[in-house]
Write a structure and sequence with these properties.
Blueprint lengths: L1 E5 L10 E8 L2 E6 L3 E6 L4 E7 L6 E6 L14 E6 L3 E6 L4 E6 L5 E6 L5 E6 L3 E6 L4 E7 L7 E3 L5 E6 L2 E6 L7 E4 L5 E6 L6 E5 L4 E4 L5 E4 L9 E4 L5 E6 L2 E6 L4 E5 L6 E6 L5 E6 L4 E7 L2 E4 L2 E7 L2 E6 L4 E6 L4 E7 L2 E6 L2 E6 L2 E9 L5 E6 L3 E6 L2 E6 L4 E3 L16 E3 L3 E5 L6 E6 L12 E2 L4 E6 L9 E6 L4 E5 L10 E4 L2 E6 L6 E5 L2 E5 L4 H4 L8 E5 L8 E6 L2 E5 L5 E5 L3 H10 L3 H11 L2 H13 L3 H10 L3 H11 L4 H11 L3 H10 L3 H10 L3 H10 L4 H15 L6 H7 L6 H31 L1
Antiparallel strand pairs: 1-28, 2-3, 3-4, 4-5, 6-7, 7-8, 8-9, 10-11, 11-12, 12-13, 14-15, 15-16, 16-17, 18-19, 19-20, 20-21, 22-23, 23-24, 24-25, 26-27, 27-28, 29-30, 30-31, 31-32, 33-34, 34-35, 35-36, 37-38, 38-39, 39-40, 41-42, 42-43, 43-44, 45-46, 46-47, 47-48, 49-50, 50-51, 51-52, 53-54, ...
Helix pairs in contact: 2-3, 2-4, 3-4, 4-5, 5-6, 6-7, 7-8, 8-9, 9-10, 10-11
Length: 777
């Protein structure tokens, strides 16, 4: 990825340009010390003077009033705030009329920013004050008073806190009075510029110490640049939070959100005092010290999938290269490309007006449909369909271009959604809520309605990243997520009836990805790279779960690596320095998944015998129990030396009825309540009581015996025997009540138990013979 710079031969301004701002993707306003506000039309390459300000107004900062979120009426901004050196800020219309001028600070007003809703304006000045104003320019409050000038300010994503500079310090102050203020030393020189992104919640700072830094919202340093030759005079996030731009003297740099640099350009600009990204995130404008306005387009973005590499060569042209045969195809578009995604044998490209869907089998005839909104901020793909996110909503389309659904929920903000907070599978859409970050909304892909009975998935801590598995049946769909403590959890998305527990898979997990071919999960865990070959094992047999993992040292990936993709058995990891690391994991677990999904148990056993790895046998054991194939489970458990489990499986085989066998299989997986319900529904009350006795659940055993008026003496007899073994006296009031005046006769009890077992056998043989008769006739 690099920047394609365009700079006019002669500057349009006579003095230094102090600030720039985009109205839409093709129109820019620039302000200069020559008192002019100039409009640039990028389609026609024309410039025109909008207004000449009075000679005492020297503009310093400009910020357009935000477009109303989620409405289609206003496609571009209609007014802006301009701060100036005379201590005022001016509300100016798009046509250049000064609607209002407000005395704001003693000395210059150094920065002004609208919040995301457009309901409040924050200004900072040379007098060290931070002030909040209403939309119409009425003073609401003075948020802070510093003894030194405040050079830059930014709102947090929720418009509830303000970040501002104080010399070498950064301060985050909530609007609520008495709330905790966060302050830390960020640079060794005065901080000149800050920016806070609404999508990734990360902070950028630039200072006179010639460095730029990336911070999280808690003030933790994520990236610290090398010192440059000159002070960093401007920084700005791209709208989607994936990139940011850095400006300095004769320098424009394009960086990834983790800090490493994609491209460095050295245009003849003087210092770049202000950087603005276009709404669609495809181009940058810079306000230059020598009177120029520098424009830069982001080009040469790359997308890779299997043997295909797609490169954006120009604004409207893509090149597709098949590395197997070196075949090259050129894809031309009518409008500029904004977003693209390559996965599941399809390339999805959104331009400013249309969406193109290409199949990797045929690059010549794309499917084209018009977009409802203009700017697509996110594309996600699954095997059967893809998801588009824009300012107006979330839309699901099939690869044939058919609109499928558009999920909605109260308070939905599409402008802050990214690949970490939205996940898509063949049947489910998961979206992390912004208002309450402990909640995940789950929707049916086909209808866009909430999944199951509409219950939300809620966790005890704030969730930072979510991912749905891609294969298997809807009922078995799982979601993995990382919370703010960096713990990895898994749970079922099934939201009806009995909810599956949320179970922890690992700690200190920084990034995760599901395989696109089978339900294998990988993640970077502290200093280890971990692959969970069959995460579902935690619901089947926790004891063997550690045996289903693959781990290797990840110290070579350095700090903050990120998993880019997991295709087949190939994992791509991006290191902190931006380099890509490709790693292959064993192909055998994926083949095992395939065999099990097709119920080819004998092939699965043969594969495990061929590979001779404990991991494979452990995965097969868990898969067999999950699919109720106890013969395979017995072989697999024997291979990993779990003798007690082999014996238990053998005892299950000897049980007389199908219901009893099923109940004991459920017990084997730890689903005791389900096992009990199954037995009671089948009328096997004694067996339900017996499993509670075997598990020493004495209260429940007695409760069932009393409820169904049977085997009370059996429960009391086993309880008495249990207490005698440990030399204890009965203290439970209910047991004392029912034991009063009752003589325990073990001979009688044994006869009753034998009668129950023979009754069960009889029932089982009757049902089998009736089935045989049904088949005959």
């Amino acid at each position: 990825m690099r920047l394609k710079i365009s700079l006019l031969k002669e500057p349009k301004h006579q003095e230094l340009v102090s600030c720039v701002g985009w109205t839409n993707a093709e129109e820019l306003y620039s302000c200069s010390d020559d008192h002019q506000i100039v409009r640039w039309n990028l389609l026609t390459s024309e410039t025109s003077q909008i207004v000449k300000l009075s000679d005492d107004i020297y503009p310093i900062d400009l910020h357009w009033f935000p477009k109303s979120l989620g409405t289609r009426k206003q496609t571009q901004a209609e007014s802006f705030v301009l701060t100036s050196s005379d201590g005022k800020f001016h509300l100016i219309s798009k046509l250049g009329r000064v609607e209002k001028s407000v005395e704001a600070h003693c000395g210059a007003v150094l920065a002004g920013r609208w919040n995301y809703e457009g309901t409040a304006l924050v200004t900072v000045g040379e007098d060290g004050q931070v002030k909040i104003w209403s939309k119409t320019g009425m003073l609401r409050s003075t948020l802070a008073q510093q003894g030194i000038p405040v050079y830059s300010v930014a709102w947090d994503p929720d418009s509830e806190k303000v970040l501002y500079t104080a010399g070498k310090q950064l301060i985050i102050k909530p609007l609520q009075p008495n709330a905790k203020v966060l302050q830390w030393k960020a640079h060794d020189g005065i901080i000149l510029k800050v920016d806070w992104n609404s999508v990734n919640d990360l902070i950028l700072s630039a200072g006179e110490d010639c460095k730029y830094k990336v911070w999280d919202s808690y003030g933790r340093l994520l990236y610290n640049s090398q010192p440059h030759e000159h002070p960093i005079t401007s920084v700005a996030w791209a709208p989607d939070g994936e990139l940011f731009a850095v400006g300095s003297f004769h320098t424009l740099r394009l960086c990834d959100k983790t800090g490493w640099s994609y491209a460095l350009e050295k245009p003849n600009t003087g210092s770049i005092f202000n950087i603005a990204w276009s709404v669609d995130g495809t181009q940058i404008a810079g306000a230059c010290g020598n009177g120029h306005v520098v424009f830069a387009h982001v080009v040469e973005q790359r997308w890779e999938w299997k043997n295909f590499q797609v490169t954006l060569t120009k604004r409207r042209t893509m090149q597709v290269r098949n590395v197997l045969n070196d075949a090259v195809d050129l894809l031309e578009f009518r409008d500029r490309v904004i977003k693209a995604s390559l996965n599941y044998a399809h390339l999805v490209v959104s331009t400013s007006l249309q969406c193109y869907v290409f199949s990797t089998k045929n690059w010549n005839t794309p499917l084209i449909f018009d977009l409802k909104e203009g700017t697509v901020s996110l594309i996600l793909q699954a095997e059967r369909h893809f998801l588009l996110v824009d300012g107006g909503g979330i839309y699901l389309y099939s690869y044939e271009g058919r609109f499928i659904s558009s999920p909605k929920f109260p308070g939905m903000r599409t402008d802050i959604l990214n690949a970490q907070t939205v996940s898509l599978s063949n049947d489910t859409i998961a979206i992390k809520d912004k208002a309450d970050e402990k909640i995940i909304f789950l929707f049916e892909a086909s209808t866009g309605k909430p999944l199951g009975d509409g219950k939300l998935l809620s966790h005890t801590n704030e969730i930072s990243e979510i991912a749905l598995d891609q294969k298997g049946l809807t009922n078995d769909r799982k979601i993995a997520f990382i919370d703010k403590n960096r713990d990895l959890y898994i749970t079922s998305v099934k939201r009806f009836g009995k909810e599956e527990q949320i179970i922890k898979l690992g700690t200190m997990v920084h990034t995760l990805a599901w395989s696109d071919t089978c339900n294998i999960l990988c993640g970077l865990q502290d200093t280890r790279f971990t692959v969970w070959y069959y995460p579902n094992t935690v619901y089947v047999d926790k004891d063997i779960f550690p045996k289903t993992l693959y781990e290797r040292d990840a110290s070579e990936f350095s700090k903050n690596p990120h998993i880019v993709s997991f295709v087949g058995n190939q994992v791509t990891i991006r290191r902190a320095d931006g380099s890509l690391f490709h790693m292959s994991i064993s192909p055998y677990p994926a083949i095992l998944h395939e065999y099990v999904n097709s119920s080819k148990w004998e092939d699965a056993i043969r594969l495990c015998r061929f590979v001779k790895e404990q991991t494979m046998w452990a995965c097969l054991a868990a898969m067999a129990v999950a699919n109720r194939d106890m013969t395979t489970a017995e072989i697999a458990y024997a291979a990993i030396g779990e003798i007690d489990k082999v014996q238990y499986i053998n005892s299950i085989k000897d049980l007389p009825s199908k219901e009893s066998k099923m109940a004991h299989i459920l017990m084997f997986s730890g689903n005791i309540q389900e096992a009990e319900i199954l037995l009671l529904q089948a009328g096997l009350v004694y067996q339900a009581i017996q499993i509670n006795i075997d598990l020493y659940k004495w209260e429940r055993a007695l409760e069932l015996a009393v409820k169904y008026k049977t085997h009370v003496d059996t429960v009391l007899a086993y309880r008495q025997k249990f207490l005698e073994t440990f030399g204890k006296q009965e203290t439970d009031k209910r047991y004392l009540q029912y034991a009063e005046g009752l003589q325990i006769d073990w001979e009688k009890i044994k006869v009753k138990i034998e009668m129950e077992i023979s009754k069960e056998r009889e029932r089982s043989s009757n049902s089998q013979s009736s089935k045989i008769l049904e088949q005959k006739f």
